Amino acid sequence: MPKKKRTVAAPISSSIPIGRYLVMAGAVTEAQINAALAEQQHLLAEGQHIPLGDILVQREMISPENLADLLVVQLFDHLDSATHGSDQEYAASLLREGKISVAALEHALVRQTQLRGDGVPCTLEQAVREQLAVSS
After folding, report:
1. Quick one: pLDDT at residue 78?
2. What does the alpha-carbon distance between residue 88 and residue 91 come to, in Å, rounded to a whole number?
3. CA-CA distance, 110 to 93, in Å (whole number)?
4. Quick check: 123 and 84 in contact, CB under 8 A?
5. Nearest of 68, 64, 81 to residue 12 by alpha carbon
6. Is the pTM higher than 0.85?
7. Per-residue pLDDT, 71
8. Does 9 have pLDDT greater than 50?
């Protein structure tokens, strides 16, 4: 598979689906998204739920790294900025300083979301510490 250009876009709106992020970042075209969505609907009709991003990666329309980058952006977008603004600033500083990879940050965000969903208070800093401990 040829190397794909990695793209990171700025968060735009919490209601934007991943396909829109990918088009806005220039990672894929509208036609590619439409083809992947049609394939996704066909698979769903056969009882298979395959996330759109996975279809795009399988068809080599985007790289797994590109998808991960934009999923992180989408995750940040789903955070309530009034409540979690400090989490966003913390994560941005970690990325800028090279203290965490995008993939590790994504895992930490997912873990934080899981814990909060279970009613366990968790800051992003706590989730990052946990992720970095697992990674090392």
Report:
1. 62
2. 5
3. 19
4. no
5. 81
6. no
7. 76
8. no
